[in-house]
Input
Amino acid sequence: MIAGASPPTLFALLKARRQALIETWGQKIRAAITGASLPRSELLDQMPEFVLEVIAALDPETLAQPTGSDHAEEHGAQRLRLGFDVAEVVREYGLLHECILDLVEQAGLTINVHEQRVLAKWLNAGIADAVAQYSKQRDLELQRQASEHLGFIAHELRNPISAAFLSFQRLKNGPLAQGGRPVEQLERGLKRTRDMIDSTLQHASMKLGIDPKLERVAVLPLLVDVEMDTAAEAQARHIQTVMSAADDLEIQADPRLLKSAVSNLLHNAVKFSHPGSSVSVTAEHAQGHVTIDVADACGGLPPGKVEELFAPLVQRGDNRTGFGLGLAIAMHAVQAHGGTIEVRDIPGKGCMFSIRLPHSGGTAV
Output
């Protein structure tokens, strides 16, 4: 070393030997994990950029250390897609550390405590970011697979149950016309099974992250259609349903998903409102949004966290005749449109569920 010159630094070494470091790391990964089958671009993935982040962190002129690495996060997600396990992802960063130390030894360099700390901190952060993203994406994929499997089972059960229900209706109007308690129990059981399958299928579909198929939908006819679907239940409980929307109010939406959301809210309102009361559904366009409010007469929400109402299999009150999926289905359907759904308690009277769909982005007009 020339007299008076500054001692070499880890920053300078890695900056000068970055390409060699990456190539050596790639060779170690092939030998230890992937073999020769993985193309070079996929093998290296985000690691060249991550090494640049490490070098930047070691720069003596760096004033503030970054708090995380987007490149490490993407590396973790990419390794999941390629079939790596999480231990192999962690090992990759350990091998990078080994390669850096090999370079240090070959150069006869002594790294100071500060450089050791920065290197360890950045490599540990890279591991944490990569593993966190790997785990997040893995959990989402497992959830998608579970929902897809659940939807498949529900779909396969739906057809034979529908056929059985139609056959029962024919028998009911024929030899079983006299009715009686056993007939009523059989009919109730078939209806309950059918409703459970429909709810499960809807919920599974929502969890798959469906892209809505948008088209122009007239709101008032949709509300009237939903009202007709719940008419029998409302009449049985002597509940009046009131629909209100301007004749010319239209919205750019997926009619199936939007109807599902409103239908589940109305069914929920009729179910929990006191017999002899009324339920209202009001739609209006104001302040850049289309809002659909469903107000019931349940007497107010029971004690507990309001947000829990939208969790699957959570039911409010003492009524356990449903399956606790309706509000979760409504929430997923609304969120698929980029909208929000919330509930407001009206103590002593009931509560109001509000669907709010944005005017911008081609979602609502």
